[in-house]
């Protein structure tokens, strides 16, 4: 199975499109297209950008974007990382946190005069 980068490049070439054509039709930059086609994922700020750019590029080439992004997640190792992080991000639901959340939502301009008046 070809990598995502290889699929993008080979499909573009098969369609007779140049990198310049892709740049004009997707609003990506030349260096971004070249990075996508070479699999230089580290040249992007975050995996979310890579996924979005791959999806846009795949749409232009009429490739299945969902399949490519799943394959990209495997290449990037995103699926495993997101499962690890998911377990770490469970909110702490202690009584103090719930009380602080409630106090943060109170409109104090109205509530404070009412409390003082009582």
TrEMBL record:
Gene3D superfamilies to which the protein is assigned, alphabetical: lambda repressor-like DNA-binding domains
Gene Ontology MF terms: DNA binding
Database matches in Pfam families: HTH_25 (PF13413)
InterPro entries named in the record: Bact_Cytoskel_RodZ (IPR050400), Lambda_DNA-bd_dom_sf (IPR010982)
Listed PANTHER family: CYTOSKELETON PROTEIN RODZ, PTHR34475
Entry protein name: HTH cro/C1-type domain-containing protein
Biological source species: marine metagenome
């Amino acid at each position: 199975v070809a990598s995502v980068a290889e699929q993008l490049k080979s499909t573009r070439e098969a369609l007779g499109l140049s990198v310049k054509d892709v740049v004009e039709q997707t609003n990506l930059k030349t260096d971004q297209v070249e990075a996508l086609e070479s699999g230089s994922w580290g040249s992007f700020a975050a995996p979310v950008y890579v996924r979005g750019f791959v999806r846009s590029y795949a749409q232009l080439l009429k490739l299945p974007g969902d399949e490519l992004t799943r394959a990209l997640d495997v290449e990037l190792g995103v699926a495993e990382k997101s499962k690890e992080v998911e377990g770490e991000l469970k909110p702490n639901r202690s009584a103090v946190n719930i009380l602080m959340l409630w106090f943060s939502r109170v409109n104090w301009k109205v509530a404070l005069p009412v409390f003082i008046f009582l």
